[in-house]
Each structure stands twice: as C-alpha cells, then as structure tokens.
Specification:
Helices cover 21% and strands 27% of the residues.
Length: 440
C-alpha cells in the first residue's frame, strides 16, 4: 500500500520582511524605552521623596560611626567562649565600642572614641523626659497647673519602643563641600538626627510603606537637634529646667520644641514629653575613686550611674548558654555596654579593679546590677516575660550589695579626662580585688 500526500491539504505560510517598518520600530525601541525607564524612575523618586520622610543631612557636617559591617556581627560565634582563657592575657582586647547619644535609644558603633570627663564623647548627652504628676495631665494644661510637677527621665523601662529609635551623630567637617563657620549646625558642634518608625494614615501611608518595601526598609520619620547650642541660642530658643534622673535633680536644657507630635503617638506617651540636653554634669561617688586619688571627682551626663560600662563577650555567651531551652537569643546590645572586650574568660571582668586599655588607665568601680531592660529585644522592642532576668537572678546574684539581683558587666571611671580608645586595643589587668555594690 502506497501512502500518497496531497500538498494542497496543508496551508503554506509565507513570511514577508518589511525592512523599513522593522527599522523604525527598532529605532523607537532603542530611543524611547530607556527614556521611559528614566522617566518612571524619576517619577518614583519624586513620589518616594514626597511620601517618605527624608531629613536633609546637617549642612557642613559628616556622620560619625562605623562605615563597614559591625564588629559584633559574629558575637554568637562559640569561639569567643571556647578560646577565652585566663592565662592567655595577650589576646585580651577591645572588640567593639558603642556610644548612646540619646539615653535608652539605639547606639552608634564606633571604630574609635574620644575620652572626655563624662566618659566617651557624645555618650548619653540627651534624654527624653515626661512631666510626672499624681493625676493625668495634658499639653493644654496651664503653666500654673504644671509648675508644681517635675520632669522625670524616661527609658525603655517605661517605653520599650525607645529601642527602635535610631540616633546619628553629625559633626562639623571642614572637608564637607558645604562647610562654613556661619552654618547653624557648625556653630552648635553638630547635630543628632533622631529617626523612629512612623507610617501616616490612609493612602499616603500606604504609598510610603510601598516605597520603603522597595528599599528593603520601613516608613520612618526623622528630626534634627543641635548637639550643643550656643549660649545665645539657649537664651533665645530654649529653657533651663529642673530634670530628675533617679534620685538626682539637675538643671538641663529643654529642647523639646524639636520633637514632632507623631513621636508621642509612636511611644504611646500620654503625659507631656520633652527632650533634655545635659547642662550640668552629675558627680559620681558611691564606689568610684575620689578626687584625692584622681585629681578630679568623676562625673557623668545622663548615664544611670557611672561614666563607662565594659562587658566581655564571653560573659554574655555564658549567660546565654545557661538560659532555659526556648529562651531568647542574647546579644551584647541588650546590655548596652560602651566597651565590649574579647579574650577573657566568662565573668573575669568582675575581678578587675584597675585596667589599662591602649595605654589609658581605668578604675573598675563596681558590678552592673541588671534591671528588666535586657528582657527587651533590641531589634523589635518586644519585652520577653522572664528572660534573661530570670537566669540573671538565679545564677548571677553574686554581689553582697545586691543579693536579690543579677549582675553582668562592670562600671568604670577613666583615670584621665582626655585620651582615645580604639577597637583592637590591648587590655591589661593592673589590679584585682573584691567588689561590693552600693545602691543609689
């Protein structure tokens, strides 16, 4: 049997080329598509700048801090606990340095920092405060009503979301193209830029959230505050008011006029809220060395009690290891130290009474008795119901001066009012001894 195929049964497709049409289309594609992409990108940028809060950097200034990955990025690496030995003093050194310009808010990691009379330069020079009273108050209350009430500092203890508030320090920089001694922020020794999560209601907030999602971030709002106003600015723009921090009342500069109204809603604060700048330092006594030994009486700004705080990364890891299964992962950021040391065995810092870091001498004054702030996740602001405070109280109640509390890290006082500290500086123990905490 022979198979015969009828060629007329299948359609024949013919392709006709139109060189002129193809050439015109190709030219349009080459020219118009890039223009369209640039136009859309420009439009998106305009919308993004409109719908997202974007505070311009302080003119004539540059931002200080780390410009590479964090030195504590590997803080969970078990080698810091495994390699820590009491005999290998040559490897004891500074792993990381932090300053906290705004009390209880997110810190700024540094490669090096200057020593000043209050500890590290720029550290804890600002603090939020609320007007405390035995009955509710509002912004509309008269001056006569508020006159008998007191501004009192606030921290993550009252408002855990403060941990989400980012701070940047901008300092005058003659290398800046816009630098001039006449610029406002150059005259105030720079500025701090304060940024907090914030999304507007309605369609504007939805668009802001969309653009933030494109950038891998979230909607935020920022505001700038002069770092150190001149005397003329203080008398013209601000007020000196009494401010209570723990049991001490000091005179401080009220700079609350820079706080946007959205910030109170973000925190969930109902009382009048303001921002204070250190005006007069607080003298430190308790377990600190005296003026007769140092040549000066130690002072601090808005730190709780002492100018400096040091913590060994192996101590944090050991505490984390002793927590019950299912407890939150710990970071040194929960404990807010200025200096993070590596190489020493867990809790070895509790033996020190005098140390040297990079040629600078420090007196180790006492243990740091822990409150509930370390229970707050430093990334989310969510407070854990029990840890690590439960483990601290069970395993770190080691100080006779605070037998019911857990301790981690040590408070320090610099032996000199000037100097520098760098990441990588060698740490030497000069003297050891016993410590007994003295309550405030």
């Amino acid at each position: 049997m022979t198979l015969k195929i009828n060629p007329d049964a299948f359609p024949v497709y013919r392709i006709y080329f139109m060189p002129e049409t193809v050439s015109i289309t190709l030219i349009y594609s080459i020219v118009l598509v890039p223009l369209l992409i640039v136009g859309v990108a420009s439009l998106l940028t305009v919308f993004q700048n409109y719908f997202q809060d974007d505070v311009c950097p302080p003119s004539g200034c540059s931002k200080i801090g780390m410009h590479k990955k964090s030195n504590i990025e590997d803080e969970q690496n078990p080698r810091y606990l495994d390699e820590a030995t009491a005999s290998n003093h040559g490897n004891w050194k500074v792993k990381s340095i932090f300053i906290y310009p705004l009390k209880s808010c997110r810190g700024v990691e540094m490669e090096k920092a200057d020593l000043v009379d209050t500890g590290l330069k720029y550290d804890r020079q600002f603090s939020f405060a609320q007007l405390k009273s035995p009955f509710p108050m509002s912004e509309q209350d008269s001056k006569e009503t508020t006159a008998n009430h007191q501004w009192k500092f606030v921290t993550q203890r009252e408002y855990p979301l403060l941990v989400q508030v980012k701070t940047e320090v901008w300092v005058p920089d003659p290398r800046s193209p816009s630098y001039s001694t006449d610029l406002p922020f150059v005259q105030t020794a720079g500025a701090i830029v304060i940024t907090f999560p914030w999304q507007e209601d309605g369609w504007k907030g939805m668009l802001a959230n969309f653009f933030a999602w494109i950038n891998g971030s979230r909607p935020e709002k920022s505001f700038k505050v002069p770092f150190n106003p001149t005397e003329e600015q203080i008398h013209r723009d601000y007020m000196q008011e009494s401010f209570t921090i723990w049991k001490e009342t000091v005179s401080a500069t009220n700079m609350g006029l820079h706080i946007p109204p959205e910030f109170k809603y973000f925190l969930g604060c109902r009382n009048p809220l303001t921002l204070f700048r250190v005006r007069s330092n607080r003298e430190v006594f308790r377990t600190a060395p005296r003026k007769e030994a140092l040549g000066f009486q130690p002072v601090t700004g808005f730190a709780d009690a002492f100018p400096l705080h040091i913590l060994g990364v192996s101590s944090m890891q050991e505490l984390s290891r002793t927590q019950a299964p299912g407890s939150p992962s710990l970071s040194v950021k929960r404990f807010r130290p200025n200096i993070i040391a590596e190489g020493a065995p867990p809790y070895e810092e509790e033996k020190w009474t005098k140390i040297e870091i990079g040629g600078q001498v420090y007196y180790v004054a006492c243990r740091c008795v822990r409150c509930l702030i370390p229970n707050i996740n430093p990334d989310t602001g969510v407070r854990h119901g029990s840890e690590p405070n439960k483990t601290l109280r069970a395993t770190r109640n080691v100080d006779a001066g605070a037998p019911l509390s857990g301790c981690l890290g040590m408070n320090m006082v610099p032996a000199k009012l000037t100097g520098e500290i760098h990441v990588g500086d060698e740490l030497k123990v000069l003297e050891e001894g016993e410590h007994v905490y003295m309550p405030m």
